[in-house]
Amino acid sequence: MSFDLNGRTVLITGAARGIGAETAARLHGRGANVALVGLEPDLLEQVAEQLGDRAEVFVADVTDAGALERAVAGTVTRFGALDVAIANAGLHFVGAVATAPIEQLERELDVNLYGVLRTVRAVLPQVIAHRGYVLNVASLAAASHAPLMGTYSASKAGVEALTNSLRVELAPTGARAGCAYFGFIDTDLVRHGLGHPSSRVMEGVMPAFVRKPVPVSVAVDAIERGVLGRRARVWAPRYVGAALALRGVLQPLLERRARRDPRIGEAVAMAEPGAGHIGGQDPLLGVAVAPEAPAVEAR
User: Fold this and answer.
1) CA-based, 20 to 30 A from 171: which of 162, 214, 238, 286?
2) Is 239 noted as a catalytic residue in this protein?
3) Residue 131, domain member (yes or no)
4) Which residues contact 263 (CB under 8 A, 6 or more apart)?
5) Contact status, residue 204 vs residue 263, Cβ threshold 8 Å
6) Is 166 part of any domain?
7) Residue 98 belongs to domain spanning
8) Which of 114, 133, 152, 181 is catalytic?
9) Number of structural domains, the chain?
10) Is the pTM of this model over 0.85?
11) Sequence-ordered list of residues with C-beta below 8 angstroms from that of 36, at least 6 positions apart, any chain
12) What does the pLDDT look like over 196-240, one tens digit per residue?
């Protein structure tokens, strides 16, 4: 049964650009009110201005539970309710578990996993009251754990597990929870991450159809399907669904192949802080900020 968004209110974290901004535009076009939550007020205001009426900006870092609670309260004050929440905010730092600055590893977990948890806790009273829907954005990395993606993979696997438990807990209330799994989407995070020298070495290890980013609209299509159907799981591109189903077979095979490939050692060495290749990673926003580029919000 389709979930009618006309007149309902959707809160989106990481809404300043990329998947978050395009999702806001898509759902706003379906008649939803949208609460735009993120770190970059100028970018958020640009999105709100483009949407016009029924869009409101709330500046908040998902590592700040109080800020998220205030964003929810402000959303309810502005629109009268909150029906749907999309926990989309996330980031990534290039680096290996053994050598990356511990602050970067911890922030990746704090934003990608605990940020989703804080968002869920903040929105659930409203979502339950209105028998609404929560969609948590994970990644194919929840099931496929690649080198130089240690804490990113751990955070996304945690999002998946959190959502699986939440889905069952919400069943008696009439509210629903879903998880979105994405491969490489053409966002700043992916574009700049794949542009790093260590990633370019790793490209030779990945199949061509996997390493080619798909347009943001493909991810937004999946999110739209998830929200309208209050689905348990959505993914994009299409191959991600097969990879999720075959995770128990693919992960051991990928590990076996990677352990024998000398390019993995080369890529890990390039990602060490002293190698001279790490640069342009904003302490708050990660690799999504390119060298010499102004700060933008990470998805």
Assistant:
1) 238
2) no
3) yes
4) 201, 202, 204, 205
5) yes
6) yes
7) 9-275
8) 152
9) 1
10) yes
11) 12, 15, 16, 20, 21, 24, 44, 47, 48, 55, 56, 57, 58
12) 778 777 776 777 777 789 999 999 999 999 999 999 999 999 999
